[in-house]
Design a protein that fits this description.
Blueprint lengths: L2 E3 L5 E3 L24 H30 L6 H25 L7 H33 L1 H7 L2 H24 L12 H52 L18 H70 L2 H4 L5 H10 L3 H12 L1 H12 L6
Antiparallel strand pairs: 1-2
Helix pairs in contact: 1-2, 1-10, 1-11, 2-3, 2-5, 2-10, 3-4, 3-5, 3-6, 3-7, 6-7, 7-10, 10-11
Keywords: Cell membrane, Disulfide bond, G-protein coupled receptor, Membrane, Receptor, Transducer, Transmembrane, Transmembrane helix
Protein name: G-protein coupled receptors family 1 profile domain-containing protein
GO cellular component, one term: plasma membrane
Length: 379
């Protein structure tokens, strides 16, 4: 009797429903809850919860960005790129979990390349944010005048282009770690260097740029403190100018005309002084707004880098060690639990990033709180 195979490993025989064996391995990796061991079921539940947290947290931040117009700033354009990237990571985790994907299958190669590419987009976006903050710190005028939506779109497109230029060829022409090394060694070295370049090189750039940003900010704060102290001392030593007499000790005008002229001069002087004060206060207000925005952006960058280090350092160390000694993988010297932890911990970055936005920016935090406590205000 012929057998009809369904996608989730359910086989029906034409004579006896529910009997018969599948013709091949199931295309989905969903465990059978009646027969699977408790450890497998627990792992499946934890994995689904893990992916759901990533998707939910980034969806909340995406909705907050859409409904609150004040969040649509130049600096937050990089944040929205990270949100979309991390949201894609969450959905790819679900697909990776339910699919029985083997590296030797053509479509699986493409999917794994896309999955690694999306992860790299998140990392390279952090590099782009660091470069942008570096220019804002060391060349503030040039950075302020060059800000535009077009520039933001171009900078946000760079991580996607670079990541997929690296990872899609690696997915198509990748190799098994157990293949012999007597082939083209140049190609093999190149393929080995790709994961290293996409993990260690961004980490090095982020570390150097962020250290220089902090150094510049610390020096600027110290210089501003000294300037404020100098201005306070100077204002205390100012003296009122001696007016009302001419250089020869007298006046050539009559008292009546002199008083009128003095009042006109005083009015003009007051108008000029008031205009100067208004311009100065406007410049100070713009400077304070720009300075506050820069502080928020730098604070957001600090939390993003912390979450990046926590999530990616185990994987970076693993890449360095296994690149220098491939026998660790070939001879399975590491337990499966540790390998699973190292492979999974990097996805935590996609959950910690939205938490970083809420912690670093009060407007993000307030918008999310309003969405939860009083959603009618946004309807």
């Amino acid at each position: 009797m012929s057998s009809i195979t369904f996608p989730i490993n359910i086989a029906l025989d034409e004579g006896l429903p529910g009997t018969g064996k599948p013709d091949g391995p199931p295309p989905f990796n969903v465990p059978d809850m009646l027969e699977a061991p408790l450890q497998s079921v627990t792992s499946a539940i934890l994995f689904i919860v893990y992916a759901s947290l990533i998707i939910t947290s980034n969806m909340v931040m995406l909705v907050a960005y859409v409904i609150e117009k004040r969040l649509r700033t130049y600096n937050n354009s990089f944040i929205i790129n990270l949100i979309l990237t991390d949201l894609t990571v969450g959905f790819s985790l679900i697909v990776l979990f339910v699919s029985n994907c083997h590296p030797g299958v053509f479509w699986c190669k493409i999917f794994l390349g896309i999955n690694d590419g999306v992860l790299s987009v998140s990392v390279i976006t952090i590099v782009v944010i660091c470069v942008d903050r570096y220019q804002a710190t060391y060349q503030p005028i040039k950075h302020f005048t060059s800000r535009s939506k077009t520039k933001a779109y171009l900078l946000n497109a760079i991580p996607w282009v670079v990541a997929f230029i690296f990872w899609l060829p690696f997915a198509f022409f990748g190799f098994d770690a157990s293949t012999p090394t007597d082939g083209d060694r140049l190609i093999r070295i190149l393929l080995l260097s790709l994961p290293v370049m996409m993990t260690i090189l961004p980490l090095f750039i982020i570390t150097v740029l962020y250290a220089r940003i902090l150094y510049k900010i610390r020096n600027s704060l110290g210089a501003q403190h000294l300037k404020d102290k100098f201005n306070m001392k100077s204002s205390g030593c100012e003296e009122e100018p001696n007016t009302g007499t001419s250089s020869n000790g007298g006046s050539n005008l009559a008292p009546h005309h002199q008083s009128q002229d003095d009042s006109k001069i005083a009015m003009k002087s007051t108008d000029v002084q008031q205009t100067g004060q208004n311009k100065k206060s406007k410049r100070n207000r713009e400077y304070r707004d720009s300075d506050a925005s820069a502080r928020k952006a730098t604070r957001s960058l600090s939390f993003i880098i912390i979450s990046f280090l926590v999530s990616w350092m185990p994987h970076v160390i693993f890449v360095i060690v296994t690149s220098s000694d491939q026998s660790i993988l070939l001879e399975r010297k590491l337990p499966d639990v540790m390998l699973a932890f190292i492979s999974t911990i990097r996805f935590t970055n996609s959950f910690l990033n939205p938490v970083s936005y809420a912690v670093a920016q009060p407007l993000f935090r307030g918008t999310v709180a309003g969405m939860i406590c009083n959603p009618k205000q946004y309807c």
